[in-house]
Design brief:
Distance between the termini: 35 Å
Number of domains: 1
Structural class: mainly alpha
Oligomer: single chain
Largest sheet: none
Helix content: 55-70%
Number of helices: 8
Number of strands: 0
Radius of gyration: 17 Å
Length: about 170
């Protein structure tokens, strides 16, 4: 699957409603731009740590691609206050599930426990077909952030991005 197809699929399956109108090239350009923006705190450092660890468990390499900061920038710039609260409230579910399983918050659990909790949550969300679930949004933003980062593009052998070629352009 090519990067553009992957991003189109992400938008179609669990994308942000405001991004649905953008074409694949615009989505890629937006993602790359978000990576370059300065970070404005939209969530607490503890929540950002939870997001970063969860993103790494969802997609190994997400930490190196700085996906946690990407997600925070998306929450600050592309989500309303209500959507941000909904997302952060959902993250509390990770802590609840981890405390029930291993008596620790998500970030303090072993990697095996974190993966087990995320896998169970993913199975539940997938079985319910819940595209508007906070976890579906986390997965979407993780993959979107990774695929539009330099680290992700290099891993997918898509970096540097090809230049535009107009074969029939006037001289």
């Amino acid at each position: 699957m090519e990067r553009r197809e992957l991003i189109r699929w992400l938008v179609a399956t669990a994308g942000l409603q405001s991004l649905n109108a953008l074409g694949a090239a615009d989505l890629i350009a937006l993602g790359r731009d978000v990576h370059r923006r300065p970070l404005h705190r939209a969530i607490s450092p503890r929540v950002e740590r939870t997001v970063a660890v969860a993103a790494e468990r969802i997609l190994p390499g997400a930490t190196e691609a700085n996906v946690g900061a990407f997600i925070e920038k998306m929450l600050a710039d592309w989500h309303t206050d209500a959507e941000r609260e909904w997302f952060v409230g959902g993250l509390a579910d990770l802590d609840t599930r981890c405390r029930a399983r291993a008596q620790h918050d998500f970030v303090d659990c072993s990697e095996a426990d974190q993966v087990a909790v995320l896998t169970a949550l993913d199975d539940e969300v997938f079985a319910a077909g819940a595209k508007d679930h906070w976890f579906a949004r986390l997965k979407y933003l993780t993959v979107y952030g990774y695929c539009t980062s330099e680290v992700g593009m290099r891993a997918l052998h898509l970096y540097p991005a090809p230049w535009r070629y107009d074969g029939c352009a006037p001289v």
